[in-house]
Amino acid sequence: MQGATAVVERVFREEYGRLIASLVRRFGDIDVAEEAAGEALVSALQKWPESGVPPNPGGWLTTTARNRAIDRIRRERQRDAKQQAAVVQYDDTPHEPTGPIEDDRLRLVFTCCHPALAPEARIALTLRLLGGLTVAEIARAFLVPETTMAQRITRAKKKIAAARVPYRVPEAADLPDRLGGVLTVLFLVFNEGYLASGDGDPVRAELTAEAIRLTRILRRLLPGQPEITGLLALMVLTEARRQSRVRNGQLVPLGEQDRARWDRALIAEGHDLVRECLALGRPGRFQVLAAINAVHTDAPAASDTEWSQVVALYDQLARLDPSPIVALNRAVAVAELDGPEVALCLVDRLPLTGYHAWHATRADLLRRLGHSAQAKAAYDAAIAATQNSAERAYLSRKRGELV
Amino acid sequence: MTHYLLAVHGPAEPDEFGTYGSREEMEEAFAATGAFNDRLHADGYWVFAGGLQSAATATVVDGQGETPVITDGPYLESKEVIGGFWVIDAPDLDVALELAAAGSKACRGKVEVRPFEGLA
Lengths: 403, 120
Known about the structure:
The complex is a heterodimer of chains A (403) and B (120).
Chain A: H1 2-27, H2 30-51, H3 57-79, H4 84-87, H5 104-112, H6 119-130, H7 135-141, H8 146-162, H9 175-194, H10 205-221, H11 226-239, E1 246-247, E2 250-251, H12 264-280, H13 285-298, H14 307-320, H15 324-338, H16 340-348, H17 356-368, H18 372-385, H19 389-401
Antiparallel strand pairs in A: 1-2
Chain B: E1 2-11, H1 23-43, E2 46-51, E3 59-62, E4 69-72, E5 80-90, H2 93-107, E6 110-115
Antiparallel strand pairs in B: 1-5, 1-6, 2-5, 3-4
Helix pairs in contact in B: 1-2
């Protein structure tokens, strides 16, 4: 029995995004969709352990959920005929193609990541509706109380309904802009998993895995978009190093990682994806970031890294994204090529005094230049600016080693 | 279809050319706004629109007590106030946002888009 329940839950989680998306299209209402999906799960938990998992479990869940939703609408119509129009917009007509691609999940991801919603709500809705994470799981991942997360999601769903945020893939002309917003949400989910901002687990593998899974789906649904491929490449090349990234509770910087523990299959996949991007010849921010990671993961040892290539790629990235954070990362590569003194000059003029990585970079450069007292102060500032336990442990050790 | 309010926000204290800086710019903005209004009519989005006198002409009335209390000036003291608005009827928020962007460009002000709960 226990095994059967686990199978139902796994299938439900895998099918959740598709299930919700098709229900949302059909009934035009997220709450109706979620409730019907929940009822289908209850039904599956009752029936599957006895009758076995049906041959097409996703289809079974969809049919069951649809029937439950229709039953509910009928009940509500009988109860109050006047309310019928207000309760749900019941759409039984076959849907018209309204965008370049027809897939319910694709429409829903553009709804969840709509620029009219608050950024944190976009992330939460995407994980809830497409990832199938529970509100409690999302709340835990972002270290906010469950009630706060529930309110955030409810508010966003209300806005979607009241302001009529459409379930539609944007027109081709708007697609690059809006797709950029979706990719940013997926990247933020990944980053939160890879270097958690709070003081809980330093790395949250469930978030990195979910971000990769959703990006893979997006890539299947929207082929020929090099930035999606670039983001997927960036994620898998980063994920490949996850096992070697924390040792004894301390963050291990790239140069000191045990490269034998890197995931070779993910690296091979990432390199293939980067080559695919290069062949398309339409570079973008995520593709260049992926290429930088490809250079790093190509080096058998840290000392083999082709830093001139890394710096050249950062130059390209800075043209696409002239942000101080890109300039900071470029300076880290410049330090390897032209020395810490040149890099420190670059770092010192960046307006990033509230950013932990800026202080950590300065601390490292000052340490390498032998400016012990200044380096200590910079480590203190970096420690104060981060909540991540593994990063704090690493910075504290480096500070302690200074004489 | 949903009704949306497109409210134009601008400085509370306009100069002699409204909020536009010069006579030329003011006339250009008026012409562009007129063209935008024509488009709303032609495409079937138009419900109602209007420009407001300056916030200094506003009066607040509180009629909840036994006798109404009348206070001069706008309800909220702020540097930016609603200078005018459109009410449109659009199929969804993306259409409303696209129209708001065009309206904002025409009248040279930031536009807040808000759905109506209903229209009487």
